[in-house]
Write a structure and sequence with these properties.
Length: 306
């Protein structure tokens, strides 16, 4: 395993660990504080998961693309976004990180490291919900990567937040998450027997979305990074442009030094006499102004009494 691949795999492991710690930990906290109100517990679980997803993708996206999801990685390998040689270590790291996140959450809340869930999540409605949830997640990722890659973290986080509430299954949409949540007998758990139908529906939804978006977006528009979440762009930067003059601004004309006129001696003499006359008026009170003007000036400077 190369150094670059090792860093990517480590990022996938740590990112998925924090994702499951957020999912399971917020479920435990919400259930303890809600006083039996399932809606409040679900709301707490939803907000923590959605906001954590945004932060995790922003943090680890530049390193590994923040797949955090075997369905995303498998679709990426199938479409050539990532090589199969990298996809298998990614999936292993995501699965190991998911179970590690469950253990971390249990340890923080004083629960056993692992405990098989008895939370029933079965039936056609729940399975179809997972198909819809995962289809929507892949649609959001593929659509944003090809048009607005920098928006992917926020789009994914807000979509999962919404899908918690509009799907009957509360939107697992992730095979690694589904497997790991079977090992927690808490609010976020799922019975081990219900895992396989969920995972099958998730993979089916992911590949269905990939087929659709390969047709909708046959080529990338704004992003050429090899990993779905990597928020980079290769759009060319604008070339520098010369400053332009506003049409309303008249051109400034400069006079060459050779064309400047030198005052004649007679004009210098007249200017000197005028300056001396003005200076004398300020010092002595005399002025060369007309008589009426001098009178008006004296009346302001030296008003007569009485």
């Amino acid at each position: 395993m190369t150094s670059s691949l090792s860093r990517r795999v480590a990022a996938e492991f740590v990112g998925t660990l924090f994702l499951l710690a957020a999912v399971v930990g917020s479920g435990i906290m919400g259930e303890r504080l809600s006083g039996g109100n399932v809606a409040i517990a679900l709301l707490a679980n939803t907000l923590a998961t959605g906001t954590a997803l945004v932060a995790i993708i922003l943090a680890f996206g530049p390193i590994s693309g923040s797949h955090l999801n075997p369905a995303v990685t498998l679709v990426g390998a199938w479409t050539g976004e990532i090589s199969w040689r990298h996809a298998l270590p990614y999936i292993a790291a995501q699965t190991a990180g998911a179970f590690s996140g469950v253990a971390v959450a249990h340890f923080m809340f004083g629960a056993p490291v692992f405990s098989a869930s008895i939370h029933v999540r079965s039936g056609p409605a729940q399975i179809f919900s997972e198909f819809v949830a995962t289809f929507g997640l892949l649609a959001v990722i593929w659509g944003c990567v090809r048009t607005r890659p920098a928006a992917v973290p926020f789009a994914v986080g807000t979509y999962i937040t919404a899908a918690y509430w509009f799907t009957a299954s509360t939107s697992f949409a992730n095979p690694a998450v589904t497997l790991a949540r079977s090992a927690t007998n808490t609010f976020a758990g799922i019975r081990p027997v219900d895992v396989i139908p969920f995972v099958a529906a998730e993979l089916a939804g992911a590949f269905a979305a990939a087929l659709l978006f390969q047709w909708l977006f046959p080529k990338r528009i704004a992003d050429t990074a090899p990993l779905p979440h990597a928020p980079s762009s290769t759009l060319p930067s604008p070339s520098p442009r010369a400053p332009t003059r506003s049409p309303s601004t008249p051109p400034v004309r400069t006079t060459p030094s050779s064309a400047r006129t030198t005052p004649s001696p007679s004009s210098k003499l007249r200017a000197s006499q005028s300056d001396e006359s003005q200076a004398g008026s300020l010092v002595t009170g005399r002025s060369n102004l007309p008589r009426g003007t001098r009178t008006l000036r004296r009346s302001f400077l030296h008003p007569r009494s009485g």
